[in-house]
Amino acid sequence: MSLTPRIDGDRLLGRLDAFAGIGATPAGGVNRQAFSVEDRRARRLLAELALERGFTVFQDGIANLFIRREGTDATLPPLLIGSHLDSQPTGGRFDGALGTLCAFEVLEALEDAQAETRMPVEVVAWANEEGSRFAPGVMGSMAFTGADAATWKSVVGADGALLAAELDATITALPEAALRPTGIPISGYIELHIEQGPSLEKEQLPIGVVTAVQGTRWLEVTTQGTAGHAGTTDLAYRRDPMVAAIAAIHRLQTTIMPLDSSARLTVGRIAARPGSINAIPQSVAFTVDIRHPLAEQLDVIETEVRQVCAAEAEAQHCTAMIKRSFDMPGAAFSPDMVNLVEEAVNSLGLPHKQMISGAFHDALFLARVAPAAMIFVPCRDGLSHNEAEYVEPDDAVIGACVLLRTAIMAASP
Ligand code: GLV
Ligand code: MN
Ligand code: MN
Ligand code: MN
């Protein structure tokens, strides 16, 4: 006879602590970058916990890790629930790990209660979501949904390591996990994640029901001038690409976001060449990260960036070159899957709101091949990609309860 499946809060919180110990930094965060020794240790721990419970463990060619509990109808593709275990170099202990460990807690809760689901349920830990060591991020979910992983084999990491070698070592470090091909059909995907922003905490809501993920576009701008002597070159003779870059960035910051509260524009990296204190630079390269929920607005903003950079370069007798390095259109989640999350939240009587994700996630890619949805929980001060990232234990457990209820409904239609 089966019981009603229940989340074991103490077990979940203990697991969160155990995984936070893998790659722990002195400041209380984690450094568990993709395909590193620490990433391999976290994958091993999850696989060992799974095998102890009698679940089956698989991995694919990009090191996505799957933990399967069978359903009653072997003809149905699995419902996937999960997130990622890799982290930023100075990452928090919840980004990715919370969703992965809540998903594993759901699988254990089903097993504890001997509960039957029609579909198999699989926990997934997507490989290299962060992309901070090996760019781009969301590699695992992109490969799973059809991207050609072969193109990344020659990628060299921020630490000089070769992706192909580190990926191979990661896969061979887990011989217990049978290798399986990418592109298996799935019935749906649900991902729990911290919000990584402040709105749920500010509004004192324990749950965000995510209806869509906004689009992201990355541009690489290079302004070119003429290198020259800092002490001898008169203003009239300068072609200073730093002045052009700074003017363009300032103008973009004072126009795009102040005029459109949904727009985001961030210059996160800037470098002058040759980068000498007493030389006018020859060139200045900077990145632009643009986000917007409306695809057409990404085009409008990109056009504006191009025009502003060209005009400010021209004003300094310089030139501007702009390359689009990454384009990730947003996606709306399946209304059916979002409704299931709503139903689960309502059945638990939890205050919540529907919201759009400002960050991208693996769920963005899964939404292109199956009904998908996300559940957000608050994080303190909206902090993420920061070692101080913190989630209240009660909020973690509430999130797991919502994931459990949603998964039960989704896995037994
Ligand atoms: C993902 O980390 C993002 O930049 O949205
Ligand atoms: Mn994440
Ligand atoms: Mn992250
Ligand atoms: Mn992310």
Automatic annotation (TrEMBL):
The keyword Hydrolase belongs to this UniProt entry's keyword annotation: yes
Annotated keywords: Hydrolase, Metal-binding, Zinc
Pfam families named among the record's database cross-references: M20_dimer, Peptidase_M20
Positions with a binding annotation for Zn(2+) 2: 95, 130, 385
Co-factor binding comment: Binds 2 Zn(2+) ions per subunit.
Residues binding Zn(2+) 1: 84, 95, 193
Source taxon at top rank: Bacteria
InterPro entries: Amidase_Cbmase (IPR010158), Bact_exopeptidase_dim_dom (IPR036264), Peptidase_M20 (IPR002933), Peptidase_M20_dimer (IPR011650)
GO molecular function: hydrolase activity, acting on carbon-nitrogen (but not peptide) bonds, in linear amidines; metal ion binding
NCBIfam families with a match to the protein in the record: hydantase
Protein name: Zn-dependent hydrolase
Protein source organism: Mesorhizobium jarvisii
Biological classification of the source: Bacteria, Pseudomonadati, Pseudomonadota, Alphaproteobacteria, Hyphomicrobiales
